[in-house]
Specification:
- By secondary structure, this protein is of the alpha/beta class.
- It has one domain: Maf protein (Alpha-Beta Complex).
- Strands 1, 2, 3, 4, 5, 6 and 7 form a seven-stranded mixed β-sheet that branches.
- The longest helix is centred in the N-terminal third of the chain and has 17 residues.
- The model has no long low-confidence stretch (mean pLDDT 96).
C-alpha cells in the first residue's frame, strides 16, 4: 500500500523515516487553516487536519493511505502561530518564558472511505529567559517558521525546562498515536 504524507514539513518527513516508513510520497494540498470560532485546542487541530485530509484525497487514489497533521501552540487557549517578523517572535517567546504552554497536533489517516482523526497534547514548560537570550535565539533564524516561535529539536531546546507528554508531538507528529492509528489500517510498524 502506498503511503502519502500530505505535508511539506521536513520534520514530519524525518519522523516518518525514523519509525521505518521510508517509501512514501509527499503531496501538499492547498488549504486554508480556518476553524469554527470558540473551538477548543484539540478541536482546532483535529478540524484542520481533517480539512487537509479532504483536500489531499483529491490528489490521491482511494488505495493510497494518506497522513495529514496540524500542530499548534496554545498559551492559555490562545493560538500562537508562526511569527510574522522578529518583533512578533520576541513577543511570543517573552510570553512563553517561565510558563507552561500546550502543543496540540491533530492527525488524520485516510484510505478510501475510512477516515480516522485523533489528537495529542503535550505540556511544555519554558525556563525563565532574559530578553537578551531570546534575541540571540531569534538571530539564529530558527524561530521564524515555527508555531510558537521555537523548535524543540534545535536550539529552542535550550529554552525548555521540561515537557509532559509526547516529545515528538512537539516536533509536529505524535509517533505513538500515529503508529496506533496506522495499525487500524493494517500498517504494523513493530
Amino acid at each position: 500500500m502506498k503511503i502519502v504524507l500530505a505535508s511539506g514539513s521536513p520534520r514530519r518527513q524525518e519522523l516518518l523515516r525514523r519509525i521505518g516508513i521510508t517509501d512514501f510520497d509527499v503531496r501538499v494540498p492547498d488549504t486554508e487553516e480556518t476553524y469554527p470560532p470558540g473551538s477548543r485546542p484539540r478541536e482546532v487541530v483535529e478540524h484542520i487536519s481533517r480539512v487537509k485530509s479532504d483536500a489531499a484525497a483529491a490528489l490521491c487514489t482511494p488505495e493510497e493511505l494518506i497522513i495529514t497533521a496540524d500542530t499548534m501552540v496554545f498559551l492559555d487557549d490562545a493560538r500562537l502561530g508562526k511569527p510574522a517578523d522578529e518583533a512578533d517572535a520576541l513577543r511570543m517567546l517573552m510570553s512563553l518564558q517561565g510558563r507552561r504552554h500546550m502543543v496540540c497536533t491533530g492527525v488524520t489517516v485516510r484510505r478510501g472511505g475510512q477516515v480516522l482523526t485523533e489528537s495529542e497534547s503535550t505540556d511544555v514548560y519554558f525556563r525563565p529567559a532574559t530578553q537578551d537570550e531570546l534575541l540571540h535565539y531569534i538571530q539564529t533564524g530558527e524561530p521564524m517558521d515555527k508555531a510558537g516561535a521555537y523548535g524543540v529539536q534545535g536550539k529552542g531546546a535550550l529554552l525548555v525546562e521540561r515537557l509532559d507528554g509526547d516529545f515528538f508531538n512537539v516536533m509536529g507528529l505524535p509517533l505513538l498515536r500515529l503508529s496506533r492509528m496506522l495499525a487500524q489500517f493494517g500498517v504494523r510498524l513493530l
